[in-house]
Task: structure prediction
Amino acid sequence: MTAPARTAGRPMQAVKLAVLLAFVLLFLIPVYVLVVTSFKPLDEADPSSAWSLPDNWSTSGWSAAWHDLRPGLENSVKIAVSGSVISAVLGSLNGYVLSKWRFPGSDVVFTLFLFGMFIPYQAVMIPLAGLLTDMELSGTIRGLILAHVVYGIPICTLIFRNYYVTVPGELIEAARVDGAGMLRTYWSIMLPVSGPAFAVTLIWQFTSMWNDFLFAVFLGTPDSWPVTVMLNNLAGSGAVAVQYNQQMASALLASLPTVLVYLLLGRFFMRGLMAGALKG
Result:
């Protein structure tokens, strides 16, 4: 590129950078208010002073938020961690079979899996509640995990199936020639290269389960409520004096796990997307 061309392109780059910075600031403004208000004592936490820094930094809001949300956080960890792992494993096995061990009618089965992605929660809520009641799982954490796993299998199957299609079929044929069966081939060949796909499905499922509210409030009980339900109850508690510092700290506390998951697995998530995990 010649010098005049580089010089002409600099104003456009500056405009792009300015637009990106504007969007970043627009995104960070609510985060700033959340963080600042969460560290204010109750007498300073007022909408009229939302933009100002606290005169006296206090962690009373965080202490109260932890005390009120701790049971919900524990329930959310149990639901999101176990549910996302089970969904990812089942999706991996389904995707492996549908991509490398095809059988008569496999396309129909895959289409039925995809159809499950488009069934709205509201359409199956009542029969799902009846099913969990018959299984004696209604109002339990295990029942919520089962509901999320069932609903997560279609998207996990799609992700793994499209990811495994990119694995050369010659590797599978070579394993068959060496006498490896279906499970041995999966364990020795497919599973070691499945890291990006697992990262995509784990992040997707963990975020979906952690942020769920509808299943939790409809199928759960106070003993199994995750943090989303308790956060909603805290925000609508109807107290005479609204404890803005506690509410802001509670919102940040409830969102930290998903942020940490993206920070830890974000690069694997992008690698999985670029590898074709969501293509096709």
About this structure: Residues 135 and 143 are 9 Å apart (CA to CA). The mean pLDDT is 85.
